[in-house]
DNA sequence: ACTCTGAGTCAAGACGGT
DNA sequence: ATAATTGACTCAGAGT
DNA sequence: ACCGTCC
C-alpha cells in the first residue's frame, strides 16, 4: 500500500516540498503514468447500476472508456502521457501478495453468501473488492494506446519504479500518480492526480524530491530507511514505531541499523528475520529498463484503426470516438507549439533546464548507473 | 491528557445536456 | 498456469 | 452544479 502516511508526514514536516499548480502550467509536459493502476481504477469506478460497462458479447469496456477519455483530456490540455505497464512483482512483495490473496478469498466467500441471500448491496460491495486487471485488459489498453499514438513501456518489474527511471533519465517531466512510492524511488518530480484537476477544479499537487529531503533534513538513503520504517509493501515494520517516532529516530541515528542499536528492542521489537536490507536495496536499485534504452514517441492517431477497434469490436459510439481522435490531432499540434512558447516566456525559471533536458531526449546519454539489474 | 499506532472500512471516471 | 491497488478516514486502546 | 448515461 505505498508508504503509509507519507503524504501526511510531508505535509507536516516538509510543507514546502509540495506546491499546487494549475493544470495549465503543465502545458507541453511529458508525464509517466502507471497504466496498471489506472486500469484497475477504471474497472472499479466505471460502472452503470453497479456493473461494468460491456459490449453486446459481454466483453468489459470500462477500462477502455476510462483510458480513452482520460488520455484525450490530457492531450487536450497539452500534457503528453506515457503509460507504464507492470511486469513481475519483486519476490519481496510475495508476503504482501499472500495477504491480499487471503483477503480476496475472504471476499469470494462473502460474495457467495451475499448472492445466496439475494443481498444485492453486499454482492456489489464484494464484487468490487474482487476486481482485478487481467492480461486481456492490459492487452486491450496497449492496443488502444498504440492506435491513439500514445507511447507505452512494459516494465520488467514495478511500474512505479520504471516511471521514476523515466523521470530521472529526463525522458519525462514527472510521474503522475497517487502512489507515494514514487518518491521513495527518488523521482525528481511527482504529480498527484494530473488528470482530475480540471474536472474537479482541484490544483495539481507537485512534489519535489529535493525539497522533501531538504525539508526533512535527510539524505536519499536516510529517506528510504524512513519509508521502510513507516511501512512499505516489501517488509514489515517495528511495532510501536509510526511516522513521528520514525522520523525522529532516522534524523538522530541516520539508518535502521543504528536505530536498532539505540532502541529498547523489548519495547519496540523488530520483525523476525526482518528483510529491511533487501527492501532498501529494492528501492535503491529497482529492476527497470534504463531510460536511455527507451524512446517515447507521440504520433497522430490512426483514426480508422481506433474506430475499427472501439466501435466495431466494442460497440462504442462512432461519432464520439471520431470526435476524440480529432482532439488528439489538434492537441498534439498545440502541445508542440506550447512547449516552444513557454520556453521563451519562462526565462528566469530554473525549470527551463529541466525542460531542455526533456527536449533533448537521449542525445547526451547519462552516465551509466552500475549494473544492478535484479535477477530472479 | 495527550500522542500515537494499527486494524478495519470505504470509495474509486468522464461526458454532455439541462 | 498464474497474479495484479491505494489512500483516506475512523476508532479503540496502548504508551508516554 | 447536478444527473443520467457511456458500453
From TrEMBL:
Domain XPG N-terminal residues, every copy: 1-107
Stored PROSITE patterns: XPG_1, XPG_2
Annotated region described as Disordered, given as residue ranges: 351-376
Record-level GO BP terms: base-excision repair; DNA replication, removal of RNA primer
Subcellular location field: Mitochondrion; Nucleus, Nucleolus; Nucleus, Nucleoplasm
Keyword Amino-acid biosynthesis in record: no
Species this chain originates from: Stichopus japonicus
Coiled coil: 97-124
Record keywords: Coiled coil, DNA damage, DNA repair, DNA replication, Endonuclease, Exonuclease, Hydrolase, Magnesium, Metal-binding, Mitochondrion, Nuclease, Nucleus, Phosphoprotein
GO terms, molecular function: 5'-3' exonuclease activity; 5'-flap endonuclease activity; DNA binding; magnesium ion binding; manganese ion binding; RNA-DNA hybrid ribonuclease activity
The protein's name in its UniProt record: Flap endonuclease 1
Known EC number: 3.1.-.-
Function field: Structure-specific nuclease with 5'-flap endonuclease and 5'-3' exonuclease activities involved in DNA replication and repair. During DNA replication, cleaves the 5'-overhanging flap structure that is generated by displacement synthesis when DNA polymerase encounters the 5'-end of a downstream Okazaki fragment. It enters the flap from the 5'-end and then tracks to cleave the flap base, leaving a nick for ligation. Also involved in the long patch base excision repair (LP-BER) pathway, by cleaving within the apurinic/apyrimidinic (AP) site-terminated flap.
Cofactor(s) needed for function: Mg(2+)
InterPro entries linked to this entry: 5-3_exonuclease_C_sf (IPR036279), Flap_endonuc (IPR023426), HhH2 (IPR008918), PIN-like_dom_sf (IPR029060), XPG-I_dom (IPR006086), XPG/Rad2 (IPR006084), XPG_CS (IPR019974), XPG_DNA_repair_N (IPR006085)
Family: Belongs to the XPG/RAD2 endonuclease family. FEN1 subfamily.
GO cellular component: mitochondrion; nucleolus; nucleoplasm
Composition skew (Basic residues), residue ranges: 363-376
Family annotation (Pfam families): XPG_I, XPG_N
Cofactor annotation comment: Binds 2 magnesium ions per subunit. They probably participate in the reaction catalyzed by the enzyme. May bind an additional third magnesium ion after substrate binding.
Domain XPG-I: 146-218
Keyword Membrane: no
Enzyme class (EC, first level): hydrolase
Amino acid at each position: 500500500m505505498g508508504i503509509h502516511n507519507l503524504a501526511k508526514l510531508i505535509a507536516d514536516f516538509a510543507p514546502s516540498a509540495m506546491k499546487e499548480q494549475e493544470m495549465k502550467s503543465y502545458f507541453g509536459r511529458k508525464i509517466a503514468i502507471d497504466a496498471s493502476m489506472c486500469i484497475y481504477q477504471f474497472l472499479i469506478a466505471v460502472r452503470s447500476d453497479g456493473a461494468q460497462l460491456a459490449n453486446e458479447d459481454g466483453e468489459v469496456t470500462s477500462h477502455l472508456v476510462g483510458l480513452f477519455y482520460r488520455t484525450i483530456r490530457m492531450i487536450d490540455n497539452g500534457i503528453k502521457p506515457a503509460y507504464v505497464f507492470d511486469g513481475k512483482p519483486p519476490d519481496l512483495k510475495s508476503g504482501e501478495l499472500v495477504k491480499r490473496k487471503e483477503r480476496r478469498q475472504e471476499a469470494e466467500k462473502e460474495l457467495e453468501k451475499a448472492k445466496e441471500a439475494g443481498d444485492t448491496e453486499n454482492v456489489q460491495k464484494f464484487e468490487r473488492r474482487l476486481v482485478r486487471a487481467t492480461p486481456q485488459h492490459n492487452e486491450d489498453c496497449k492496443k488502444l494506446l498504440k492506435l491513439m499514438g500514445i507511447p507505452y513501456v512494459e516494465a520488467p518489474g514495478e511500474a512505479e519504479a520504471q516511471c521514476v527511471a523515466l523521470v530521472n533519465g529526463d525522458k519525462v517531466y514527472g510521474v503522475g500518480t497517487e502512489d507515494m512510492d514514487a518518491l521513495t524511488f527518488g523521482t525528481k518530480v511527482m504529480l498527484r492526480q494530473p488528470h482530475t484537476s480540471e474536472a474537479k477544479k482541484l490544483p495539481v499537487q507537485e512534489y519535489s524530491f529535493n525539497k522533501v529531503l531538504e525539508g526533512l533534513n535527510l539524505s536519499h538513503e536516510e529517506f528510504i530507511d524512513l519509508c521502510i520504517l513507516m511501512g512499505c509493501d516489501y517488509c514489515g515494520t517495528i511495532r510501536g514505531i509510526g511516522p513521528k517516532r520514525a522520523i525522529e529516530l532516522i534524523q538522530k541515528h541516520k539508518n535502521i541499523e543504528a536505530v536498532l542499536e539505540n532502541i529498547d528492542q523489548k519495547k519496540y521489537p523488530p520483525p523476525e528475520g526482518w528483510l529491511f536490507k533487501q527492501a532498501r536495496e529494492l528501492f535503491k536499485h529497482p529492476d527497470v529498463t534504463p531510460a536511455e534504452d527507451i524512446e517515447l514517441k507521440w504520433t497522430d492517431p490512426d483514426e480508422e484503426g481506433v474506430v475499427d477497434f472501439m466501435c466495431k469490436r466494442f460497440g462504442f459510439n462512432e461519432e464520439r470516438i471520431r470526435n476524440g481522435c480529432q482532439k488528439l490531432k489538434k492537441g498534439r499540434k498545440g502541445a508542440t507549439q506550447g512547449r516552444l512558447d513557454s520556453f521563451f516566456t519562462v526565462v528566469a525559471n530554473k525549470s527551463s533546464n529541466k525542460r531542455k533536458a526533456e527536449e533533448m531526449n537521449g542525445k547526451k546519454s547519462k552516465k551509466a548507473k552500475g549494473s544492478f539489474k535484479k535477477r530472479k
